[in-house]
Amino acid sequence: MTRGPERSQPREEVLCAPRGIGPDGDYPAPEQPEAFRSWFEREGFVVVRRAVPAAACQRAVQAFREEVLPDRDAWFERHATGKFERHVYTDAGFMKFPIMNLQDLSSRRHPRFKALGLDVLTQPTIQRALEVLLGEPGRAVYTMYFDGNQATWAHRDGSYFDAQRPGTMIGVWVAAEDIHPGAGRFYVVPGSHRIAVAGERAEPHGVAYKARMAEFVRNGPLDCVAPGLRQGDAILWTSLTIHGSLPTTEPRFSRRSFTAHYVPRSQSWQWNTGARTGSRSTVVNDVEIVLQRDESTLLRKAWNTLRLDLPRLYRVANGAREALARGRTE
Ligand SMILES: O=C(O)CCC(=O)C(=O)O
After folding, report:
1. Are residues 183 and 279 in the same domain?
2. Interatomic CA distance for residues 209 and 197, integer angstroms
3. Whole domain around residue 305: which residue ranges?
4. Contact status, residue 33 vs residue 132, Cβ threshold 8 Å
5. Which residues, at least 6 apart from 257, have a Cβ–Cβ distance to it below 8 Å?
6. Do 317 and 267 have their domain in common?
7. Which of 80, 132, 135, 202 fits as disulfide partner to 209, beta carbons 3.0 to 4.6 Å?
């Protein structure tokens, strides 16, 4: 994926909650399964308050700050480029670009963050909510952690990857702290899962796709909603619901959050942009999480180990590999 410039507000008016349910967002709860499901199916998203205990969020964030944030040598797969890169810090010292697939992190170098982050994403309240919506337990296929704000472009997850039956994957975004309005809140476009956007079949990493989506959010017929979320609250959305993040207006605030994308356990899942592996998985809190790390050959496995556990050596080896590749094409 290419990185775009910092964006302005996606729409002139951004609401805190859909019209008619009050500014604090009085969403149906999973304990009212019928109302919860029909709200989700109609709006394409729902908020679950206190889905994760505050202490679990706190522990995971603390582990990030101690183990991951100061690790300037380590390489993490980044959402915006799909490449392994070291940290870029914001002026306030936050990690600018989210890291992908906590399940594939090193258990030697970042063991507490990996375990505690996955614990947050597999909490029982989230699993109950998913089961109501999916009609069966879910399997996580893709996870992320955000610290600062990369200003995520408007998109549908389903343009990139989805469950075997398109539209049935569900994203979960957990606020690991109270998210300040100026930190770059997560937003959704309620109802967008039922509307096609002209030109959206373009390559989803490309400029044309991103421009079409941005235009739809800005001038389209639907509201843009950025719910106020407190520590432990979660927002769930369908893989067809358009979403992104607001720009940061107060850079001294972070937007610490974990996300996971779940498919129904009886279904497989697919990448819509290029081949990916993912036949291995791990289990956390009785929830299956697909491992995205490609270990299909001994060489790939060794390369992964080098990157994960000996990042300085990896830097040298990777630099040499890239120089060799450049030499071949010249
Ligand atoms: O929080 C964000 O910036 C975007 C998250 C997102 O797009 C996702 O989890 O699918």
Report:
1. yes
2. 10
3. 297-330
4. yes
5. 145, 146, 173, 174, 175, 176, 179, 186
6. no
7. 202
This prediction has a pTM of 0.95
Residue whose C-alpha is closest to residue 4's, from 86, 65, 81? 81
Q: Is residue 289 located within the same domain as residue 323?
A: no
Would you say residue 20 lies in a domain?
Answer: yes
Q: Indicate whether 286 and 326 sit together in one domain.
A: no
What pLDDT was estimated at residue 3? 44
Do 229 and 316 belong together in one domain?
no
- Nearest Cα neighbor of 172 from 131, 220, 116, 211 is 131
Question: How far, in Å, CA of 253 to CA of 256, rounded?
Answer: 9
Residue bearing tokens 């507490």 = 112
CA of residue 111 to ligand 1 center, whole Å:
24
Give the distance (Å) from ligand 1 centre to CA of residue 82. Answer: 14
- Pick the closest to residue 146 from 86, 99, 83, 84 (CA basis): 99
Q: Tally the domains of the chain.
A: 2
In angstroms, the CA 128 to CA 134 distance is 10
**Residues 234 and 317 both lie in one domain:** no
Q: Which residues line ligand 1 (CB under 6 A)?
A: 144, 146, 152, 157, 171, 173, 186, 243, 245, 259
Q: How far is the CA of 152 from the centre of ligand 1 (A)?
A: 6
Q: Is residue 81 part of a domain?
A: yes
pLDDT digits (tens, 9 = 90+) for 174-211: 999 999 999 999 999 999 999 999 988 889 989 999 99
SS3 97: coil
